[in-house]
Amino acid sequence: MVASLLAVLRTSRLCQWGCKSRAQLLGPLPFGPGGWSTWAPERTNATLSLEPAGRSCWDEPLSISVRGLAPEQPVTLRAALRDEKGALFRSHARYRADPHGELDLARAPALGGSFAGLEPMGLLWAMEPDRPLWRLIKRDVQTPFEVELEVLDGHEPDGGRLLARAVHERHFMAPGVRRVPVREGRVRATLFLPPGNGPFPGIIDLYGVGGGLLEYRASLLAGKGFAVLALAYYKYDDLPKSMRIIHLEYFEEAVNYLLSHPQVKGPGIGLLGISKGGELGLAMASFLKGIKAAVFINGSVAAVGNTINYKDEIIPPLSSLRDRFKVTKDGLLDVVEGLQSPLVEKKSVIPVERSDSNFLFLVGQDDHNWKSEFYANEISKRLQAHGKEKPQIILYPEAGHYIEPPYFPLCKAGMHVLVGTNIIFGGEPKPHAVAQVDAWQQLQTFFHKHLGAEERTIPAKL
Fold this sequence. Notes:
Layout: H1 2-14, H2 19-26, E1 47-51, E2 55-57, E3 63-67, E4 74-82, E5 88-96, E6 103-104, H3 122-125, E7 128-129, E8 145-153, E9 162-171, E10 178-184, E11 187-193, E12 200-206, H4 216-222, E13 227-231, E14 245-247, H5 248-260, E15 264-274, H6 276-287, E16 291-297, E17 307-310, E18 313-315, E19 326-327, E20 333-334, E21 358-364, H7 372-385, E22 392-396, E23 413-416, E24 421-424, H8 429-452
Parallel strand pairs: 2-9, 12-13, 12-15, 14-17, 15-16, 16-21, 21-22
Antiparallel strand pairs: 1-3, 3-6, 4-5, 4-8, 5-7, 8-9, 10-11, 11-13, 17-18, 19-20, 23-24
């Protein structure tokens, strides 16, 4: 209650600041028809309340409400944030106050704008970048994204009188989570440990062909009771600059590091991978020991774009069929038909039947990066044909390739490193947002079940 009152008071004071004092604290306002606002708000009785107040974790639902409006007053709510490279993401939605002059986004449907209908978290997941084809990524998890929320009089998103404003910090490390840079042998990674003494169930987290070291999913997941190793494998520090050949011995070293860590409980660990990370994770589960549970998001059944080596075994990549690429009406490439079928080039198939892991496959049915649903079904058939347990497959209609933690905006198209140009990744904003919330809960439940951890999840809501 005290925190909520402080948020209301903070918001009310914001509405009385001049532009100069506000800019000194937070920089220029990310709104206005010409870019940045240059005027101060008039005094108003409206207050914008957020719960949790002041700050929250990125995957945590946020309650947004407005009080002190006129009965049934039309208003527009706007949200904006800048990423670490200066790109601006914005959304807006039109609403109408109730007969008491109050507005609660959990009960009031949006009447249009970036989204429509009852969408309490729509102002976040519906954000779009000002830069075309720009994906929202958090690179420094030790700092938050600052989300600015504004309430305007009327239904003009760029012309209404400013009634209230609040700034909310969305963090990527829950209180007590520890970030430990790892440079052990050849392993280049960051380990995130939950609060407490442990030991904790361990998970290795793998991203895709962009390379580098992405930590935001691992840092959020550590807040749920897991020790999570965000693992780089190329284009980072002294690691290889290309993926032409992937040596699984490097990943084996990472598995052994995590299994031997004093704050990681055995007897096995988990894997979490998306896209290329799903493909490499499948190879790890197939060839390496000590992997008990694996969750793959839109991964592949075969090697793609590079050779996978483990000791004296070699898996060559599927052939690229560039003549099957299509150009959309927007001038983007659709590459979903651009790989040879693993049923034709069987030597490229990863021998998943060797694995004793438990599997969960999370699949966007509108994935245009590659045929994720087909690949997941082929993995299932292969496992069952060799007497293995049928894996769990969850399909998400109209979800695209990048199924991220909750409330990340949809990345429907963008640069693909292996293709060398912009492609479509698929997905529609609303169903993709629903998929992200559900997938986040499903993977946590799966890991808790198979790795044995005390559940600490906070239900994510749209």
